[in-house]
Amino acid sequence: MFYLHAFTKKQPDLNWENEEVREEIYAMINYWLDKGLGGFRIDAILNIKKKLEYGIFESDGEDGLAFIGPWILNQSGIEVWLKEMRERTFKPHNSMTVAEADVPNERLDEYIGEDGYYSMVFDFSYTDIDVPETGEWFKDSQWTWTDMRTNIFTNQLVTQDKGWGALYLENHDQPRSINKYIPEEWINDYSKKMLATLFMLLRGTPFIYQGQELGMTNIEMASLEDFDDVATHSQYKRALEYGLAPEQALKAVNKRSRDNSRTPMQWNTQKNARFSTSDNVWLKVNPNYPELNAEAQLTNQQSVFNYYHQLIKLRKNSVYKDVLIYGQFLPVKDKNEHILLYERQLEDKIVLVILNVTATEQEYYVDEQYQQVLINNYEDVLLDQSRKLRLRPFESIVLANYGGQL
């Protein structure tokens, strides 16, 4: 006798091959939808179908084990159950669904097309860019912003051709995005706002994770015992087996652990950032909470929080909302690889997003058609008479070809 667990050993996987199990799941979904729930975020859904084999399998890691992915991800036949679930639950209720599903581009139409299983699916191609294909957090994937551009643009183009996308920079399974994408010495409000601009103006529905709108950062834990996450403990052990010294292994998991995004929300300067009055909070509060907290940012018009508000207003309550919601995504090529550029276009209306993704000043010549500055993360725009734009480190500027004068 045995059971399969794809995640922690205290969490056995359900046997979806059993029709009674599936019926019980559909009954639970319908219970909530019948009460008027608008929809679901569906977690790890592509893991439900298993390829069951007996035998001894070759190890692919220092722990002597084999990665389970090839036996549980995107297995043939899963589409039968996904369609069955949609027909029995989501479709009759006309509910919104967003799936945590790393869907290959060639199969995206099945998932979010006109008759797809879900309303939208998340894109992992850039949020997991720092994780090597082997899944070993403690190793460096050596990603570059060229890789980021390729991954984001490819997914945007494929998704808009098939259906609707779900955008995110961080979630409960990710370290904080600012630490992932920006060098430590350049983590500041400018670089945080640049990431917000990049993500919020893409085509799709943006999902903002708690604390992201404040620019919350990773926490540095003093020892492994400070971490709660099972996967973090596993990665630390594998790092030691790989040959890393304990201090190196701790540094690696401090950088990549998902407990970074699970630390208490930083509300104000009170005890435990006002998350709890207890002396034993389940995870340590990031010590930077006296300076980085919601209360301080609410009244600061230049804060990261208020910058997110400005971006949301552009999408929801401005003359540019139709372009930013429904407009086509168009990548813009430039000889300067240090600048990331894209357009949102609807008929003859265009919004241009310009991002300096480096810590050095860059230049870009702005076409004369762009006469309106929608938003920028610095206090001013450095544009001369020849329309040469000077972009400071991690500067982001959004321009439009309608709506006013530059």
From TrEMBL:
Keywords: Glycosidase, Hydrolase
Example of a GO biological process term: oligosaccharide catabolic process
Enzyme Commission no: 3.2.1.10
Gene Ontology terms, MF aspect: alpha-amylase activity; oligo-1,6-glucosidase activity
Organism domain of life: Bacteria
Stretches that traverse the bilayer: none
Keyword check for Hydrolase: yes
SMART domains for the chain: Aamy (SM00642)
Domain Glycosyl hydrolase family 13 catalytic residue range list: 2-262
Entries under InterPro entries matching the protein: GH (IPR017853), GH13_cat_dom (IPR006047), Glyco_hydro_b (IPR013780), O16G_dom_2 (IPR045857), SusG-like_C (IPR056300)
Protein's UniProt keywords contain Hydrolase: yes
EC class (word): hydrolase
Family, similarity comment: Belongs to the glycosyl hydrolase 13 family.
Name of the protein in question: Glycosidases
Organism: Enterococcus gallinarum
Gene from which the chain derives: malL
